[in-house]
Amino acid sequence: xxxxxxxxxxxxxxxxxxxxxxxxxxxxxxxxxxxxxxxxxxxxxxxxxxxxxxxxxxxxxxxxxxxxxxxxxxxxxxxxxxxxxxxxxxxxxxxxxxxxxxxxxxxxxxxxxxxxxxxxxxxxxxxxxxxxxxxxxxxxxxxxxxxxxxxxxxxxxxxxxxxxxxxxxxxxxxxxxxxxxxxxxxxxxxxxxxxxxxxxxxxxxxxxxxxxxxxxxxxxxxxxxxxxxxxxxxxxxxxxxxxxxxxxxxxxxxxxxxxxxxxxxxxxxxxxxxxxxxxxxxxxxxxxxxxxxxxxxxxxxxxxxxxxxxxxxxxxxxxxxxxxxxxxxxxxxxxx
Length: 336
Hints:
This protein is an alpha+beta fold. Helices cover 33% and strands 32% of the residues. The chain has 2 domains: 2-145 and 323-335, 3-Layer(aba) Sandwich (Aminopeptidase); 155-313, Gcn5-related N-acetyltransferase (GNAT) (Aminopeptidase, 3-Layer(aba) Sandwich). The chain has 11 helices and 12 strands. A 12-stranded mixed beta sheet has the order 1-2-3-4-5-12-6-11-10-9-8-7, with helices on both faces. The radius of gyration is 21 Å and the shape is globular. Mean pLDDT is 94; it is low at 198-203.
């Protein structure tokens, strides 16, 4: 097994085709109902990062089957320079041949050399990756429930009514692809409420809690080929952002929408803003992203304030997701 550096800025179409083959073969084996990835802006997806962050990638080659798998490691900056997150993908035909272990060893070595204390990854609970990481000593840090909304089953008249169930002193605004400049500071202030969420909701939250980081985040998403949609609840008496919800559609997987953060400021809770905002989002997506087939969202397993909201919108619980974390020195010892 050979592990080589993979540089998206210099890779050719054949290399990106191999990258997609690994991902889509793995998806077909482990999660056959999941949408497949396409080759639209793959280089951007793998290379564009936030300021102060970097992403390193590798490809594993097997003498018998060729490209066996690939991995990437995102290294954070600033307050989170002690950690990073990674992904490993292995072709079904290459399992049991040391592919995952070889890729993990390479990225753990790089993380250690860069001074990272911990690294983490997300895993779908029904896939073989769960056993792989647990055998290597990864600890389960966060458990979330993924829910799916099939847009073909939506009662659009009911959703339209739910979107209108917001009264004075609030108004809802929809913004596609970014935010007006005057909203950045107020939006980031409200989003920072997620810092106080429990660990089962946010983990080590790395969201945009100030206007500068928010601008950088939106620019990075756009640079990676990801279209942003935001609905904002504005308190008309103060013009403060009372709540917000975000959704992203990736060029690389255009039939699925990814629900990002939804938050209502504490002083404005119990007014039905979360339901109205998320319903308004769906009504906008119907025309803005007509190719969408479904939307996925994640909530804590118990007592999530959004669980009831999602149920009213028609989301169905699908599968659990686990976030695994390991201390880099201990991981390297185990891999040796």
